[in-house]
Amino acid sequence: MDLIIRENSCSFLYSDVSSNNLSVLPDGLFSRNYKINKIQFDRNNLQEIPVDLFAAGKNLRKIDFSNNNLREIPELLFNNTYNLRYVHLKNNSIQGIPNQFLFSTPEITLLDFYHNNLSNMPSDLLKKTTKLKSL
C-alpha cells in the first residue's frame, strides 16, 4: 500500500495508519505538521523509519511503532520532540538503541521496547529522562 499525503495538507492532530501492511514511509512525512500529537504505525511491515519523520514534532506526545519489522532506530529520530511522552516499539527486531535516542525528550514517561533483540543500551540513555516511569 502506498501512503500519499500532499505536502501542504498536513494539519491534523492524530494519524492512525495501523494494520495497513505499510513497508515504507516517505521521508519528511510529518515535517510540516506542527500540530500532530499522536501517530500510530503499529501492525505494519515497516523495516525502517526515516530520520526526519518527526522534524516538526514539537507537539508530538505519543508514537506507536509496535509489531513491525524494525531492526534499528535512527539516532536523531526524536530530535525536536520535546513533548514526547509515550514511545511504543515492542515486538520488533531492534538490536540496539542509539546514543542520542532520547536527547530531546525530557517529558518521556513510557518507553516500551518489550520483545526485541536488544544487545546494547547506552549507559547515559536515561540521563535526561527524569520523568520516565516505565521502561
UniProtKB/TrEMBL annotation:
UniProt entry keywords in alphabetical sequence: Leucine-rich repeat, Repeat
SUPFAM superfamilies per the UniProt record, alphabetical: L domain-like (SSF52058)
InterPro entries in the cross-refs: Leu-rich_rpt (IPR001611), LRR_5 (IPR026906), LRR_dom_sf (IPR032675), SLRP (IPR050333)
Protein's UniProt keywords contain RNA-binding: no
Record's keyword annotation contains Heme: no
Gene3D superfamilies assigned: Ribonuclease Inhibitor
Pfam families xrefs: LRR_5
Protein name as it appears in the record: Slit-like 3 protein
Lineage: Eukaryota, Metazoa, Echinodermata, Eleutherozoa, Echinozoa
